[in-house]
Design goal:
The chain is of the alpha+beta class. The protein is 19% helix and 31% strand. The chain has 2 domains: 41 residues; 47 residues, no CATH class. The longest helix has 8 residues. 0% of the residues are buried.
Length: 89
């Protein structure tokens, strides 16, 4: 999660789906130290298919939502290049 503060509000960007939400600062909570000590589990990746890189998040979600996919990692250094397929190819 990344945050950007403005007058009395903060824009929160969720790294899982990339969506954002503007919330009042008074609604924000402090994350307990016991949770803050966990390493991030999001990993920077890029798609191996140039067509996917040109698509909007909404179009990608519509294409892959509710589908079981295999993720093939194409390299061994970040950012990782990944190939998505349904396992039938």
């Amino acid at each position: 999660m990344a945050a950007e503060e403005n007058e009395g509000t903060t824009v929160i960007r969720f790294v899982d789906y990339g969506n954002t939400e503007t919330v009042r600062n008074s609604d924000l909570k402090v994350i307990p130290i016991s949770i803050r000590n966990y390493r991030p589990i999001a990993i920077e990746c890029t798609a191996d298919d140039p067509a996917l890189l040109a698509m909007s998040l909404e179009d990608i979600q519509a294409m892959y939502s509710e589908r079981e996919l295999c993720v093939e990692v194409c390299n061994d250094t970040p950012p990782f290049c990944v190939k998505l397929h349904d396992g039938k190819n």
